[in-house]
Amino acid sequence: MRAALLGLLVLLLAVAISAAIGSSALPFLRALAILAHTADDVRPWEQAVVLDVRLPRVAVALLSGAGLGVSGAAMQGLFRNELAEPGVLGVTSGATLGAVVALYLLPATASPIAVPLASFAAALGCVLLVHRLAGGHAPRASLLLAGVAVSGVAGALASMVLSLSVADWELGRQMLSWMMGGLEGRGWAHAGLVGPPVLVGAALLLVRARELDALALGEESAVGLGVDVARLRRSVLVLVALSTGAAVAVAGSIAFLGLMAPHVVRALVGPSHRRVVAGSAIAGAVGLVLADALCRAVAGMVDLRPGVVTALLGGPFFLALLARDLRAVRA
Amino acid sequence: MTALSLARIEVRRGGAEVLRGVSLEVRPGEVVGLVGPNGAGKSTLLSVAVGTLPATGEIRLGGAPLRSLSRREVARRLAWLPQAEGTELAYRTRDIVALGRLPHLGLFAPLTAADEAAIARAVEDTSIAPLAERLFPSLSEGEKQRVLLARCLAQEAPLLLLDEPTARLDVRHAFALMAVVRERSRRGLAVLAVIHDLGLAARSCDRVVVLAEGAIVADGPPLEALGAESLARAFGMRARLTETEEGIALTVLGPSA
């Protein structure tokens, strides 16, 4: 309980910091005061910058980060592999491909609904494929290899669609932005789009958390404890695709966030999946909100994207975990 | 009422008959040892009883047909300790034992007093109280197996299935583990255990079932079931069985002529 409150406090802090940072000539403390409704004689543009530009963007970062965090936690539990996460296993690439194809094929007016649906469907396809290839008793490495293959194919297809649409400059730009991951110009409509699937996904994954604890002991042990493993697997995969698909549809591909969040949480509050799933929602949200804040803080100097920040942090993190794994195998 | 009743069980795998008409009953309060050479179908038989492997024949748990029960209902009727499972995640020993209550819990319901009492009994019976706050991956093999057994006991199902529970244990821990199981069976638990070590089976089971090439060769008290004829048929081995003050001792002599 204390840990949960502390986590929410950190999240609140991250939101405040992020909402107070930006390119407009608005002092940090004044932006905070506007957020807290304690500022005097606020001018309309100031209010608009904080409440209509920055806050929705922060909300989108928060919800997308939470979606990727719970997805990573659930995948690590389901595959019994601490290296699993939506990016590594190709779910993010799949969701990106879905979004890009929807943008290419459908008129712009259809995209607000079609893009998230397409990225959910493609994410589901990829996660089912990876699971089919290496989900059961296959060695840990096979899972990662299956992820690499699926990710590679989905990425190549997305590039192909992109090159087909380069002629239409605006469309190409939009797609590229998706593939790089970013939160520019995200508004309340985007938050409304990513919110429901992520919240539903996280809530239902929380319901499954105890069964994931049983599964941690092994598949047969879980069966012995009354878990319908096939059903658990189906529902977790669908919920992961839902959360990841929604996050990617509004924020683009954000790498390794889903990998790091559960590890940080487990180190703080232990491996119980109820805590890890809930904690990873918070950790993922904090991570993406801060990564986005960092990008805006340095916007004058370099054009940094949150997906790049998480990849730069997460890549070495992933390699360190892999090295630890290999040492354990050799020992 | 039998805790487990298997009738005319047949399993085919890739054209080969793994189990050929096996019938077996386990009653409350008895420890039944399932022995046999590698590939005899011992683990397969346990998987059939749990319901993870399709088979023809009739399977009843506490009188009810297995196929009429949900996974959760099955878990309230039998606890299963599979082979070589465990976790590398830093769960506390106590949390592992508490998982045994899963089949009795609602979705978000916390542990009730009855759950806590069942956990306490399991911890007490397996003498793992000193390990309660330790992290599972830091335990020795013997300790881990005791904790996993406690997880099964906390389930408080009337039937316990064990798949080579002593395979990775030294002789002292193996005897201690079976002693815990025997103590519970004295209070009514029905136990079916696959055991590799014939000496341990002879010592710690009320009844021994010898399985060879998918069929039952012998079924009876250890002295009868592990007699010269069935050992020769199942293993091609000779052994001497002697009754001592501490129980039945089995000495393997050598290959049968």
Write the layout of secondary structure elements.
The complex is a heterodimer of chains A (331) and B (257).
Chain A: H1 2-20, H2 28-35, H3 44-79, H4 91-105, H5 111-134, H6 140-164, H7 169-180, H8 188-207, H9 209-216, H10 219-224, H11 229-251, H12 257-269, H13 273-297, H14 306-330
Helix pairs in contact in A: 1-2, 1-3, 1-13, 3-8, 3-11, 3-12, 3-13, 4-5, 4-6, 4-7, 4-11, 5-6, 5-11, 8-11, 8-13, 12-13, 13-14
Chain B: E1 4-13, E2 16-26, E3 31-35, H1 42-50, E4 56-61, E5 64-65, H2 71-77, E6 78-81, H3 93-98, H4 113-125, H5 141-154, E7 159-163, H6 171-186, E8 190-194, H7 198-204, E9 207-212, E10 215-220, H8 222-225, H9 228-235, E11 237-244, E12 247-255
Parallel strand pairs in B: 3-8, 3-9, 6-7, 7-8
Antiparallel strand pairs in B: 1-2, 1-4, 4-5, 9-10, 11-12
Q: Mind explaining what this structure looks like?
A:
The complex is a heterodimer of chains A (331) and B (257). The mean pLDDT of chain A is 87. Chain A has one domain (2-325): ABC transporter involved in vitamin B12 uptake, BtuC, CATH 1.10.3470.10. In chain A, helix 5 runs antiparallel to helix 6 (140-164). Chain A contains 14 helices and no strands. Chain A is mostly helical and 331 residues long. With 257 residues, chain B is α/β, with parallel strands linked by helices. Chain B is 33% helix and 30% strand. Chain B has helices at residues 42-50, 71-77, 93-98, 113-125, 141-154, 171-186, 198-204, 222-225, 228-235; strands spanning 4-13, 16-26, 31-35, 56-61, 64-65, 78-81, 159-163, 190-194, 207-212, 215-220, 237-244, 247-255. In chain B, the strands form 3 sheets. In chain B, strands 6-7-8-3-9-10 form a 6-stranded mixed β-sheet, sandwiched between helices. A 4-stranded antiparallel β-sheet of chain B has the order 2-1-4-5, with helices on one face. In chain B, strands 11-12 form a two-stranded antiparallel ribbon. In chain B, a hairpin with a 2-residue loop joins strand 1 and strand 2. Chain B starts with a strand and ends with a strand. The model of chain B has no long low-confidence stretch (mean pLDDT 91). At the A-B interface, helix 9 and helix 10 of A face helix 2, strand 6 and helix 5 of B.
